[in-house]
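Q: Predict the assembly, please.
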Amino acid sequence: MSGKRKHPVLNVTDHVMYSYRWTIIGYWIVFLMIYIGIGILLNSNMIMDEDIDKVGVWEGASVSPKIFLLVIGILMTPMSLASFVSNGITRRHFVLGVSVSIAAFSAIFGVIMTAGYPVEQLIYEQNNWPLELRNPHLFTSTSQVGWIFFEYFCLFFTYFGSGWLIGTGFYRFDWRIGVLITLVALLPSFAMEVLLSSDWMGSLMQSVLEVQRTPLAALVLLALLILGLIILMNYMMLRRVAIKKKTF
Amino acid sequence: MTLSIEVKQLQLKYGSFTALHDVSFQLEGGKIYGLLGRNGSGKTSLLSILASYREQSKGSVAIGGEAPFENAGIMEQVCFIQESGYMNDASRVKDVLKLAASCWPNWDADYASRLIKHYELPLKKKVTSLSRGMKSALGVTLGLASRAPITIFDEAYLGMDAPSRYSFYEELLNDYMETPRTFLLSTHLIEEVGTLFEEVLILDQGRLILHEETETLRARGAAITGSSESVDRFVEGLTVLGEQKLGKTKSVTVYGELTDEMRKRAQAEGLELGPVSLQDLFVHMTKKRGDGQ
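A: Predicted assembly structure:
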């Protein structure tokens, strides 16, 4: 007989993370290779763009992981729900398990993004390049690792969550409603970008629209509310869904 | 541990189409049940509800006295295996088994290893690259090793070749003797599996038309063999399900219980009476007008 069993929520988390481990590792290897390549090209003066040695390259690096997580999120329900339910896991436990996985993936991605800033700072200092942030962020200096992590964690979670909502929408409904849900599903990511006023969205809001950022305490609460809403919306769509044959 | 199943006035609708009409039955735990029905009769729909894959439109289901849908305590006691399966095609066989081992509370790892060896399952291969027979063998392994108090096989062994299927039937029976639990088998291979069933349920066009012990059901018909003339004379007025002729000998299958008087008459006329096959009875009970006969 099997030994001591994990709680179904942790069991789902474990299996989701195990299933995507090589995809994630492979992605980061390719991602980091590209950035190391850019660094080498900069060092050897093969890239002569004057802007590059004044502003950080790493700052613009978050777009790719956000889109990557969005795609993984789209696959989540169609690829995994049926196999978990067919192993006796409830939809509720599946939603909670996936939520914990998203938090874990977002934390891992957030840590990598956070770690990138001091590394970049070091490289710029060694080359006597002045390093500036191109866009506004929750952090004003690369030493504010807590805020760097929080900003990226929230962004990665919402993009992953938006993808999850899209996949769930197509799984739960027919393609026409799925398309409509896709539009709604992107709102949490958009809302998080607006709330954090970071990166290009922050630049647009603060420089062009002259909108001031929400006070930090309220911002943290609202960010957590958005994350909670993503989980709730997924649960509402999945809680009574009929299990279908594989769609991929 | 065995669990009873009680279904009352169950109805399932897909939009305007009604797949199940007021189906009611009660199954006591620890038996092997056969669920028979033609294509589209509602077998998979009914089993999907029992396994919480979908929720009924009306009526109620109780497993061990509790509603199974989204009930973690019940869902982990009901293992539903289908031929096409719900396994993740991108996963390796060992990962599918790993997931099952972590989910089913009564998972028997030793038994799983024995079945893996028996069916020569390639652990490192991805599910998508398995042959149909291997996928069936994997499904059967999952179902048997889950040791779930209610284990449902919905045509799960259809892809296996004949020797593998017979070995599965043997395995199922041995396992049932060792660790009694409720097996619910849905199949079209009635001749092969029929001997395993203790009770049979027949669904037709979404309605439960029969739920009986197999032996009682078999007694509803008889095979009469003897000289053509005697057989023809004997079956006059009876419902004939089928007939076979070899030279002057004829064998006719009839539907309807034979009275003691009829049995004596058959004996007097030198006719042999035998049991009717489950398949013949099934065909008779589910045939539609215009299907022949």
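The domain at 221-275 of chain B is CATH 3.30.70.260 (Alpha-Beta Plaits). The mean pLDDT of chain B is 91.
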